[in-house]
Amino acid sequence: MLLCFGIGALVHSWSGEDQVQAASVQAKEQVIVKPGDTLWTISERYAPEGEDIRRYIADLKKANGLSTSALTAGQVLVLP
């Protein structure tokens, strides 16, 4: 029985499962909203080149659970 446990632990360590879990918990880039910022201005700064700003705004709202476009200075937004 102890042998089976040892073999299981060895196989688990070779499987790379820990690497998969670590990769799935990647840190997302965050932005702190400054006075005067809007979803549009933030999207213009951070959207990948060539991406439709309106699509990026929709993704930004979804990533942050926003139902409106209202922002508050100091609010932290996660970039999609």
Any overview of this molecule?
The chain is mainly α and 80 residues long. It has helices at residues 2-15, 17-24, 39-46, 53-63, and strands at 30-32, 76-78. The protein has one domain (2-78): Roll (Membrane-bound Lytic Murein Transglycosylase D, Chain A), CATH 3.10.350. It has four helices and two strands. Strands 1-2 form a two-stranded antiparallel ribbon. Helix 3 crosses helix 4. The longest helix is centred in the first third of the chain and has 14 residues, at 2-15. It starts with a helix and ends with a strand.
- What's the shape? globular
Bin the helical content. 40-55%
How far apart, in Å, are the first and last alpha carbons? 48 Å
Q: What is the radius of gyration computed over CA atoms, rounded to a whole number of angstroms? A: 21 Å
- What is the helix/strand order? HHEHHE
Strand tally is 2
Q: How much is the average pLDDT? A: 80
Topology-level CATH name: Membrane-bound Lytic Murein Transglycosylase D, Chain A
Strand order of the largest sheet: 1-2
Low-confidence region ranges: 1-13, 15-24
Instruction: Give the domain tally.
Output: 1
Task: Supply the CATH class.
Answer: Alpha Beta
Q: Which class best fits the helix and strand makeup? A: mainly alpha
Assigned CATH architecture: Roll
Beta content: 5-15%
The CATH superfamily bears the name: LysM domain
* Helix segment tally: 4
Report the major sheet. 2 strands, antiparallel
